[in-house]
Amino acid sequence: MKQLVDKLFETNNLSSAEYKELIDNRTPELSEYLFEKARAVRIQNYRHDVYIRGLIEFTNYCKNDCYYCGIRKSNRKAERYRLTKEQILECCSVGYDLGFRTFVLQGGEDGYFTDEKIIDIISSIKAKYPDCAVTLSIGERSYESYKAFFDAGADRYLLRHETANAEHYGKLHPRSLSLGNRKQCLYNLKEIGYQVGCGFMVGSPFQTTDCLVEDLLFIKQLNPHMVGIGPFIPHHDTPFGDKKAGTVELTLFLLGIIRLMLPDVLLPATTALGTIHPKGRELGILAGANVVMPNLSPKSVRHKYMLYDNKICTGDEAAECLYCMKRRMESIGYRITISRGDHKSIR
Length: 347
Ligand code: 5AD
Ligand code: FES
Description:
By secondary structure, the chain is an alpha/beta fold. The chain has one domain: TIM Barrel. It has helices at residues 2-11, 16-24, 28-46, 85-98, 115-128, 143-151, 166-172, 179-192, 209-222, 248-261, 271-276, 280-286, 299-302, 318-331, and strands spanning 49-52, 54-59, 102-107, 133-137, 156-158, 195-202, 226-231, 291-292, 335-337. The chain has a 6-stranded parallel β-sheet with strand order 2-3-4-5-6-7. The chain has a 3-stranded parallel β-sheet with strand order 8-1-9, with helices on one face. α3 crosses α10, α4 packs parallel to α5 and α6 packs parallel to α8 (179-192). 5'-deoxyadenosine binds at residues 68-69, 160, 162, 201, 230, 232-233, 235, 272, 307-308.
């Protein structure tokens, strides 16, 4: 198996049969070997720098009904909220003073936030903080909407593909959503000129090794600037409330593989990874990740943006979260940097 890791390290590529073999035959020893290579590549490209993104969860209204997600429209128990533009700008102000130079506007698919409103928010942030990147994570919209947001100043867009296998996609989502449309959105975003992030949940219900292999091949083909992966974690008020969570072990292994596939990709150690293991984010960095996304949402709404059970950092102020993260990164020999943290191809 080590030869497969070596081959991936040298060529950034494996066949689907080889990915399958690697994943199915992984051992703790092989994982450690993979992580060493992944860290070497990561350090060569990004030294020991960890980029931070300030996450602003600005609405938990959602018109979709994904079976895994705690803010799905059928979850009548979710307490819904929207931040005003003023509240969003206040999050940016707090974040800027703490050293954040990327703001991620994340929300459910909320029809209240028309293109006009989103454009107004983007231009207000860019006018006040011209040295900052604005990342959108607001789901599927038309080409025209994406283009208008880009023209208003949005720099990046996160849209996880969730799974690259159409049949599996159908088991995670209602029929109104399709993998074809999801992929089209990602290609549209790339064409428009965004730095684009895709990604998937590890250990989502009905996921097989073949699904993971398809995820990896799709990621290689899309060649995104960012890839967000984290373990699936059940939310008790969803149809998947009694499904098993994904594991730290497999998530870390996939992070290592993705680092070798796309040597300079921006790869977050996600909140979900930090939720299923007390040192999950540190382990993610040590497996090849180079981004963390501390929460900048107002403390009063954090417990309402519950995508899954036991989400961490919901009781902490932005500053506390950042200092906690700084300590965590320093404890493993890495450092948080004050910068936009663009992909290497942009600078
Ligand atoms: N567990 C883990 N991740 C989840 N997401 C949504 N629900 C869950 C869950 N139960 C992820 C999805 C989505 C991102 C914002 O959060 O991948 O794209
Ligand atoms: Fe948020 Fe530790 S990173 S509290």
